[in-house]
Design goal:
Elements: E1 5-9, H1 13-24, E2 28-32, E3 44-48, E4 54-58, E5 64-65, H2 69-77, H3 82-85, E6 86-89, E7 92-96, E8 102-107, H4 116-123, H5 130-145, H6 156-162, H7 167-182, H8 191-202, E9 211-214, H9 218-221, H10 223-232, E10 236-238, E11 243-249, E12 252-257, E13 261-264, E14 266-269, H11 273-279, H12 284-290, E15 298-307, E16 318-321, E17 328-331, H13 332-336, E18 341-347, H14 357-371, E19 380-391, E20 409-411, H15 424-438
Parallel strand pairs: 1-2, 1-14, 2-10, 7-16, 14-20
Antiparallel strand pairs: 3-4, 5-9, 6-9, 7-8, 11-12, 12-13, 15-18, 15-19, 16-17, 17-18
Bound molecules: flavin-adenine dinucleotide.
Length: 441
Amino acid sequence: MHKSHVAIIGGGCAGLSAAATLVDRGYAVTVFEAGSQLGGRARTVAVEESNGLLHLLDNGQHILLGAYQETLALLKKAGVSRKKAFLRVPLQINMQSNTAKSVFSLKSFNVLPAPLNLLFGLLFCKGISLNERMAALRFMQGLKNTQYQIARDLPLERFLINQHQSKKLISFLWEPLCLAALNTPIAKASTRIFLNVLRDTFSGNKKNSDFLLPRLDLSQVIADPLSHYIQAKGGIVKLNQRVRAVMPENNGFTIETRQEKLHFSHVIIAVSPARVEKLIETLPKLNHATEQTLTYQYQPIYTVYFQYPPGTRLPEVISGLSGSIGQWVFDRGQLCGQNNIISVIVSAEGKHQQLTQDELALRVAKELNRAFPALAKPLWHKVIAEKRATFSCEPNLPRPTNRTLQPNVFLAGDYTYPDYPATIEGAVRSGIHCANLIANI
Ligand SMILES: Cc1cc2nc3c(=O)[nH]c(=O)nc-3n(C[C@H](O)[C@H](O)[C@H](O)COP(=O)(O)OP(=O)(O)OC[C@H]3O[C@@H](n4cnc5c(N)ncnc54)[C@H](O)[C@@H]3O)c2cc1C
């Protein structure tokens, strides 16, 4: 065991990944989590119906990708069985219109290696003309030739138009992928970051482009196993302990919560960017340096859950909606045994934010009914609104480094991983990187 004792502020994916990596290297760690549960923006919440029935629902329907290598390796280390935890769906996009027609469908050719699996998928996709398919193929080939790099970042929609991608192609293929990956409207989204995601998803192993859909509650897949792992190796996890201040003292730092003051050699601040400022007020070097980098805009994600009568089943576990405010639809019965529960993701900003939650649910229920006319009237609904789900992933966004100007204080979190949008993988990589910086690896 090292003499160092590392305080980790925030028990989301970034903080837990840092802690799990440090305990492996023999460091003493204490994770401070302000909330009553771990997981941060990737967690399960208990929702009570008016009749007292309790549902365990994720704060947002998450999609992981086969390309999330660090996350998958970390979960494996924590004993998560990939087969039990995830349904692996080879890339397929099925866009359903509001007239119950499939307007676009693309299925990767799983027998072929990457990127041929996607190229053949594009060549044979349904819903766009041969010219449009060829334009998509040329576009992908061009990206491969330039290794998915661009000289100057610009909004994705502008870039796609410059690349001769038609309106239909943008709205059926690129826009849904942009919303799923960056949670930012395509007119604002960063092309560079989108291409990084495309690169990691569509090059290398063909499994990188698989969707991994959690079959268990999100907390059971990520936060709980990581927490058990950390504690089994001697780490301390403190819930309901919001850190109020970090003060440099006696060659280290005093961490102050409402309940106590404790001393540490190192600190990893693993909270969302909006919460960093308050924590660094007492660290003047940091305060000044991060002032500019942390002024982000945020994007919401609404997840609308519906309970339908017994026997409800959608044609696919996951489908896309075209021309609707809802974007992706999941049959949670097929996915995780929550029979007759359907969830719909409404990503990024939009007019839907002006609706009340009941109005939003009603609108989305109508859209579902038009796309899948066999659906009966929902019996119950619940909207989970995450107003600051992710930072708005726009061109040339400043991203702070994990190492700060204050020796032995590090920043972790999805926003610090410069290659990616706000994702679990970005958060995990940032946490592991902070741990490696402390361990000098
Ligand atoms: C609805 C929704 C859907 C999403 N869908 C996807 C998806 O499909 N795929 C994907 O990869 N990503 C998705 N994301 C993004 C992903 O969840 C986040 O990028 C990731 O969880 C961020 O982890 P983090 O550790 O950086 O931050 P957070 O999860 O925000 O963790 C920060 C933690 O710090 C705690 N904290 C804050 N202040 C203090 C304090 N003073 N003291 C102690 N603790 C404090 C918070 O309570 C929180 O637990 C989604 C996010 C949302 C909200």
